[in-house]
Design brief:
Strand content: 15-25%
Shape: elongated
Structural class: alpha/beta
Number of domains: 2
Radius of gyration: 21 Å
Order of helices and strands: EHHHEEEEEEHEHEHEHEHHEHEHEH
CATH class of the largest domain: Alpha Beta
CATH architecture of the largest domain: Alpha-Beta Barrel
Number of helices: 12
Number of strands: 14
Bound molecules: S-adenosyl-L-homocysteine
CATH topology of the largest domain: TIM Barrel
CATH superfamily of the largest domain: Aldolase class I
Distance between the termini: 35 Å
Length: about 350
């Protein structure tokens, strides 16, 4: 079987080259080509002919295919549907923010978490992505847009902490100075709250930002929305979050999708504020993107602002997420879903 060369760290690439009887230092050159978006060993023009032939025989370069691209007329948001070699598809989004170009990437084809309001759940789980499939979302988007990407959020399809080994490798790869050289502080990983992996993550990547999909002020509501809450309920979850901020000194983000008549009441805002009180955190309120096939509805701007005001009144930092690309299929998994149905 050929080696998936894009999944290798510069160091591993060096070891691979030695196995081929080549000089280790060539690794930096090859890594740089891969991360520039070169998909053909013959385009690596500073390598000898014989090395290119060896690479062709023993390795392959992962490449995602753009199956569909939607571009927002309003704000330039670009949403990609990428085809994988497995025949499955994943989504990635390119967004322009004041602080830099950001991509939202997927960590799995599908998801095992089954959150009640999420489009990905409707499609089930196909497979974990490889590290190369994760990084190529970034590389392919840089290539297609011709723009540099400075920020990454792992908030697309999948639960990144359900694919932790690959997530760690991905973080190492995009951070490598021979390639994209993206600062760990410019990366955010979002989880629905897998406590043991959150603890590991605080040890392994204290500079990477953590976002937690909370979406509820108590277990009674959270149990109905996020099945994994039964295994990792809110008390230990919030305790883990608190420890994370203490260990890393970094503010944690809580995502809270406002769902009409489910978690949007004044009492919910109060309860949430109480539970987050004193934590170094920020609440990101997201008016739910209604998924047609599921029976949940979002709230209007005024209700979101009221909820925001209640949190702020209790000293909790919060914002309503700016809606980018609202004129193209918005919610997570919707592009993939619309293609399938
Ligand atoms: N599994 C990870 C990351 C992927 S989901 C996690 O749970 O955090 C990225 C975010 O989008 C999560 O906060 C998720 O709860 C949210 N989300 C999913 N479906 C949504 C919808 N229909 N409307 C708004 N947010 C949604």
């Amino acid at each position: 079987m050929k080696t998936d060369i894009k999944s290798l760290t510069p160091q591993e690439l060096g070891a691979f080259l030695e196995l081929l009887g080549e000089k280790k230092y060539r690794a930096a050159q090859i890594f740089a080509w891969l991360y520039k978006g070169v998909y053909d060993f013959d385009e690596m023009t500073d390598l000898s002919f014989s090395l290119r032939e060896k690479l062709k025989a023993d390795a392959f370069i992962e490449k995602l295919n753009i199956e569909k691209l939607q571009v927002s007329e309003k704000d330039g948001t670009r949403k990609y549907l990428f085809g994988l070699r497995s025949g499955n598809a994943i989504e990635s989004v390119f967004m322009k923010y004041k602080y830099g170009n950001t991509v939202c990437i997927s960590s799995q084809a599908g998801c095992r978490m089954n959150c009640a309001f999420c489009a990905s759940a409707a499609l089930g789980f196909a497979h974990d992505l490889t590290a190369a499939e994760m990084v190529d979302q970034v590389i392919a988007i840089e290539k297609e847009t011709g723009e540099r990407i400075s920020n990454i959020v792992v908030m697309g399809t999948g639960e990144p902490f359900d694919n932790y080994g690959t997530l760690s490798r991905f973080l190492e790869l995009v951070h490598a100075k021979e390639g994209l050289n993206i600062s760990l502080r410019s990366i955010t990983v979002s989880t629905c709250g897998i406590i043991p992996r959150m603890e590991e993550f605080a040890e392994d990547f204290p500079q990477v930002n953590l976002a937690v999909s909370l979406h509820a002020p108590n277990d009674k509501i959270r149990d109905t929305l996020i099945p994994i809450n039964k295994r990792y309920p809110m008390k230990p979850l919030l305790e883990t979050c608190r420890k994370h901020t203490e260990k890393t000194g970094r503010r944690i983000t809580f995502e809270y999708a406002l769902i009409k008549d489910v978690n949007d009441k004044e009492s919910h805002a109060r309860e949430l504020a109480e539970r987050l009180s004193g934590m170094l955190c920020h609440v990101n309120l997201i008016p739910l993107n209604p998924v047609e096939e599921l029976n949940f509805f979002g709230v209007d701007r005024k209700s979101a602002e009221r909820f925001l005001g209640l949190l702020e009144g209790k000293g909790i930092q919060a914002t309503i997420r700016r809606e980018l690309g609202s004129d193209i299929d918005g919610a997570c998994g919707q592009l993939r879903l619309s293609l399938k149905m």
